[in-house]
Amino acid sequence: MSEEKKKRDGFGSKIGIIAAAAGSAIGLGNIYRFPCELGNNGGAAFLLVYLAVVIFLGIPVMLSELVIGRRSQSNAVGAFKKLAPKSAWSIVGYMGVLCGFIIFAFYSTVSGWTLEYIIKAVSNSFQGKDLAAMEQDFSDFHNMGWRNVMWQAIFIFLTGFVVFKGVQNGIERYAKILMPLLLVILIVLGIRSVTLPGASEGLSFLFSPDFSKIDGKVLISALGQGFFSLSLGMGALITYGSYIKKKDNLTSTAFSVVLADTLIAVLAGLVIFPAAFSFGIRPTAGMGLVFNTIPMIFNQMTGGYIFCIIFFVLLAIAALTSTISLLEVVVAYLSEELHINRKWSTVWACVATLFIGSFASLSLMENTPFAIGGRTVFDLMDFVSSNILLPLGGVLIVIFVGWRLGKTKFFEEVTNEGTIKASLKKVIFFIIRYLAPIAIMIVFISGLIN
Ligand code: PHE
After folding, report:
1. What is the pLDDT of residues 131-165, one digit of tens each?
2. CATH number assigned to the domain covering 2-326+354-449
3. CB of 233 closer than 8 Å to CB of 393
4. Ligand 1 pocket by Cβ (under 6 Å)
């Protein structure tokens, strides 16, 4: 046991932890999924609910996961087994592993597109294209099902490579430098976007809420998006928490990550919507929203060619630091609980993900056989994981910390055994114990009824 503990890999520095956790959180969820969801759910009203979700639920749930992880020093399943031996709580961990696997499967589809779009950017294929041509290219690409699967396979392989190399050498090193760079490029893009003709319509779509638009669907979508974007509810942050050293401050880590993630999402909205309205792209355009709008903004910029390449490279890396955390949940489980060595755990997890994930990719072709009741396999995987499994996982995690682990152990963990101050600990614990479970349940049920 102590042997095993010594061998566990860990994060090297404070900034490394935040970078790795923020690397997990910041990804396609912010830049691709957030604008899609916002556009499909009426804009500003969604943004408001989203902000409420990340502030009031995101921080407490994230802190709960980090506490579970660091206290148990274990993977998502092992954590519950250690903290609540011989109980049914480990089901939460198994749910998380399953969910990580499903998310990785469809997430790697979109991750693969970022590689295709790097090639397109390098070969200058966006130059001078209007919206119709851009949209045509996007759907032509989807119809090349196997090309999608190829990129997906390459992306899964890249993820496996980093995860195989281990936490400190792999994950941490990449995340530290590249995430700040993404922020910079988004700011540049944002400035260009809001100064395009007709951008103000996009700004009011984003910032002047119509409260009558808030219904069960908006609530559950915002909740699902909040959990998805912050990597919550499936054990990614339990797993990462287990690599955090005893002297590090969990509360400030949670605050920093939530802040960074939300900043990037709102910034992505600021990039996409003013430009989309300016070019005449519908906010409900879904997948094409980001992949068509962004190159078109670059077309309007001096130096756009180079910036566009850099943007898609950074987007790919942002996706990679997220897929790493998804795969890490599965690999940590396989290697620590089933004692399959790390190398083979990684190989098997990747092969299985590619197999399942290729259905997600192929389901986006025209006339695909992989659609059930009018919904593509891709959509179904996304819906089941984000809107059902993550909120369910989240509610069980806060109930676990609030009622099973309890106040004393929670306080011990957030104050590092009383050596640091955590002035918000009482408020946060109150939310974890009472408000968060009730709020998540209400939103979840109202969404299901809808
Ligand atoms: N949070 C990541 C993103 O926004 C996706 C993710 C979800 C990663 C769940 C890990 C766990 O892109």
Report:
1. 999 999 999 999 999 999 999 999 999 999 988 88
2. 1.10.4160
3. yes
4. 24-25, 27-30, 103, 228-229, 231, 234, 236, 322, 325-326
